[in-house]
Design a protein that fits this description.
The chain has 389 residues and is mainly α. The chain has 15 helices and no strands. The protein has helices spanning 2-16, 19-27, 33-61, 63-82, 87-100, 104-114, 120-145, 153-172, 192-197, 203-230, 235-264, 266-283, 291-317, 324-352, 357-388. Helix 7 (120-145) runs antiparallel to helix 11 (235-264).
Length: 389
């Protein structure tokens, strides 16, 4: 489990390094606000297409070779992104980078292979903690390395970390998929996401993943613009802001989620967690710079730290072992689809309606998700009871 955790940490640190400087880097190529958010969108569109294919391929051919290949190619795409000389090259390498980083579905399938249904939330929480650490160190390091206008320096460091991740994986990463599964004879289905959302036990949970990530992406993609225009923050300061989400999220997912799930269950935790995220998003545009603004980030991080592993655990527990790659890939694909539209809608609202509008829309969606999560949890529990019977 720790090997998978380390792989995710290095993967996400490399991803997070780019976040605080992406807007400024794109603006060097005369990108408009909507082109900046579109640059984030193409990354997610590529993940939407690639994630189910990576997941199904790992069910069929094994987790280790595909995870290692995608990590190595991530380093190549980051190097290309840092070497770009025009806006279209930024879009090209950002898109290919998205294809490669759709490999998180494979890491989640590895964790599902290594855990029991009872410890599934703990395992997914460990991956979530890896996300948290990645989003803590990545944006912070990216902001610090970008000081003085050195915007490509963090991207080269991210490429180096991906190469290091590949070398460590060659040495430490085991094959977790059990041989002889039905998936070895099952053809890869490009419409796996559509099949997954119709599943009686996990379909609504996957849809909730999409709603949650849409809201989070709308906030994440426009906050850099909001902070630049409203508070006149620099890349390193924005990186520290996102670091708060990483620190708090890592604490919740790495240390608290297993105890919370053991006591209350995943289904009972989802509604209050969604409402916490809603409160942080709605208040954020009104919060003055300083402790108040940081508090909204902390509130969002606490809710996110529960929502993500709880949904992933419910999704994973709803399908058999030989379909873990497919269902986790479909879940990641839904999240990626949300990241396609979240930044686009957020950027449109920011530019054409009101600078606070993306945050208020996201908060309203979280209130709706809190209500839907009651039904999703009930369906998951009914399916689990039927399996036991």
């Amino acid at each position: 489990m720790l090997v998978i955790f380390l792989t995710v940490v290095l993967d996400l640190v490399g991803f997070g390094l780019v976040i605080p400087l992406l807007t400024f880097y794109a603006e060097e190529f005369d990108a408009t606000p909507q082109q900046v958010t579109a640059l984030m969108t193409v990354y997610s569109l590529a993940q939407f297409v690639a994630a189910p294919l990576w997941g199904q391929a790992s069910d069929r051919y094994g987790r280790r070779p595909l995870l290692l290949a995608s990590i190595f190619m991530t380093a190549v795409m980051l190097a290309g992104f840092a070497s770009a000389t025009s806006l279209w090259m930024l879009f090209l390498f950002r898109t290919l980078h998205g294809v490669m980083t759709a490999n998180i579905a494979i890491a989640q399938a590895c964790m599902a292979d290594l855990t029991t249904p009872e410890t599934r939330a703990k395992g997914m929480g460990l991956i979530g903690a890896g996300f948290g650490i990645g989003f803590t160190l990545g944006p912070w390091l990216g902001g610090e390395l970008a000081q003085g206008g050195h915007l490509t320096r963090p991207i080269w460091v991210a490429a180096g970390l991906s190469l290091l991740n590949f070398l460590l994986g060659l040495w430490l990463l085991p094959e977790t998929r059990k041989p002889g599964s039905h998936a070895e004879r099952r053809p890869i289905n490009p419409l796996a996401l559509w099949r997954a959302v119709q599943h009686p036990a996990v379909g609504l949970c996957i849809l909730l993943t999409g709603v949650f990530i849409f809201a989070f992406a709308a906030m994440e993609s426009t906050f850099t613009l909001f902070a630049e225009h409203e508070h006149h923050l620099k890349p390193e300061q924005i990186g520290r802001m996102f670091g708060v989400i990483g620190v708090v999220g890592a604490i919740v997912q790495g240390g608290l989620i297993h105890r919370l799930v053991k006591r209350f269950g995943e289904a009972a935790l989802l509604p209050p967690a969604f409402l916490m995220v809603a409160a942080g998003l709605i208040v954020m545009p009104f919060a003055p710079l300083g402790g108040a603004l940081l508090s909204t980030f902390a509130l969002i991080a606490c809710g996110q730290g529960v929502v993500s592993p709880a949904l992933q655990s419910l999704v994973s527990r709803g399908v058999p072992a030989d379909a873990q790659g497919e269902v986790m890939g479909s879940n990641q694909s839904m999240g990626a689809l949300a990241r396609v539209f979240g930044p686009l809608v957020g950027g449109f609202l920011f530019q054409n309606v009101n600078r606070g509008a993306p945050f208020w829309l996201a908060g309203g969606l979280m209130v709706a998700a809190a209500g839907l999560s009651v039904l999703a949890g009930r369906r998951a529990m009914e399916h689990r009871s039927a399996q036991v019977a």
